[in-house]
Amino acid sequence: MKKVLRFWWTVPVVVTLVVSLFRRLLPAVKRQEKGAISANDEPEYAGENNALYTSDDVKNFYNQYTGKFVQVYGKVIQAFRTTDITKLLDYQIESIGLKPAQTVLDAGCGVGGPAIYFAQKTGVQISALTISDVQAVQMQEAVKQAGLTHSIRVQTGDYHHLDRIYPPESFDTIFFLESFGHAHHPRQVLNSAWNVLKPGGTLYIKDLFRKIAPSDVLQKKIDSEITKINAAYRYNISDLYQILHQVRQIGFVVMHLKTVDIPLHDFENLTISNDFQELTGVGKIDNWAEYVFPVEFFELKCYKPLHSLDRGLDRYFLQNLFHIQVNNRNPHEL
Ligand SMILES: C[S@@+](CC[C@H](N)C(=O)[O-])C[C@H]1O[C@@H](n2cnc3c(N)ncnc32)[C@H](O)[C@@H]1O
C-alpha cells in the first residue's frame, strides 16, 4: 500500500499525456471527416506544380529515343543499376515484395525488361503501362517472344489517369522503376494509384530525387544541374519531402525509405548513362570540373491501409486507432 501511495503522482501525469495525445490527433480527424483530405484537393506543399514537362513531351521523347535507349541500356532502362542487370532485378523482386499470383502494375514499363523478368521468376500477373506507343509495340513483341502473353498485358496510357484505365482496387502492388519522376503532377499520380490499389496493397517507387547540399552555393549548382537533366530527359525530378508529404496526406503508410542497398562492387558506375549521352548528345555534361552530381536514388515503399474491420484489422496499431477515430468505431473492435 505504501508503494502505491508513493507513486500516486504518476496518475495525473499519465492522464495529461493521454489527453494531449488525443487533442493532437483530433484536428486531423476532424479535417478528414469534413473531406478536407480528398483526391481533388489543391496542392498544399510549397514548390509543387512547377513541373515543366507534360506527358506529351515525355511521350514524344520516348517515341524518338527508345531505339537509342535500347541500343545502350538494353531492355532495362534504369540509370542506377548493377553491371549484371539480373542482380538489380532480383533485388527489386525482394524489395518490392513480388509474390506468385499477385496482380501487379508496372507503371512506366519501358520496353519490358523488368516485367518479363519478374513474370518469369515469380509468376506475377502484370499490367504494364507506358506513355510511348513505340515502347508498347516493342514490348508486346518481346512478351510474345517470351511466351508470356497469358501473364503480361501491355497498354499505352498516362499513369496520371490510372483510375480511368483500370478498375478500382485491382492491384496488389504498383511499382514505378525510374518512371515516377516524369510526372508533371505527382499528387495526381499518387491519388490515382491509391484508387486502383487494393486495400492492404503496396506502392513502390525507385527514383532519383533532388540532392540536398550542405551549402547554398552547392545547392545552386545542384539545382542548375537538375534543370539541365529535366530538360534533357523531359523529367520533373521530385523533391523527396514533397512526395513523402503527399503519400502520407493521401493516407499511405510509409514502410521504408532507403537508398538502393546493393553491394558496392555490383554497381555499374554510370558509364551506360555517359554512353547514352555520347551517342545522342542528350544531357551531355560540358564541364566535368564544375560538375556536381545533383541527385540521390531512393526506394520508397508504402502500403494502403485496410481500414475495414470486415476485411481484417490493419497490421499497425496506430492505423487501427486512426481508423476507429475517423469512423467513430468502438475501441473494443481494435
Ligand atoms: C526511364 S524509363 C524506365 C522504364 C522501365 N521502368 C525500366 O525499368 O526499364 C521511364 C518510363 O516511364 C514511362 N512514363 C513516363 N511518363 C509516363 C506517364 N505519364 N504514363 C505512363 N508511363 C510513363 C515512359 O514511357 C518510360 O517507359
Give a structural overview:
- With 334 residues, the chain is an alpha/beta fold.
- The chain folds into two domains: 54-303, Rossmann fold (3-Layer(aba) Sandwich); 305-334, no CATH class.
- The chain contains twelve helices and seven strands.
- The protein has helices spanning 2-6, 10-33, 55-73, 85-96, 113-122, 133-145, 162-165, 186-196, 216-233, 240-250, 271-280, 317-326; strands at residues 103-107, 125-130, 152-156, 171-177, 197-210, 253-259, 295-303.
- A seven-stranded mixed sheet has the order 3-2-1-4-5-7-6.
- Strand 1 (103-107), helix 5 (113-122) and strand 2 form a beta-alpha-beta unit.
- It is globular.
- Residues 17-47 have low confidence and may be disordered.
- S-adenosylmethionine is lined by residues 55, 58, 62, 76-78, 108-110, 113-114, 129-132, 135, 158-160, 177-179, 182.
The main sheet comes to: 7 strands, mixed
CATH class of the largest domain: Alpha Beta
Helical segment count: 12
Structural class: alpha/beta
SSE order: HHHHEHEHEHEHEHHEHEH
Q: How would you describe the shape?
A: globular
Ligands: S-adenosylmethionine
Tally of domains: 2
- Total strand count, please? 7
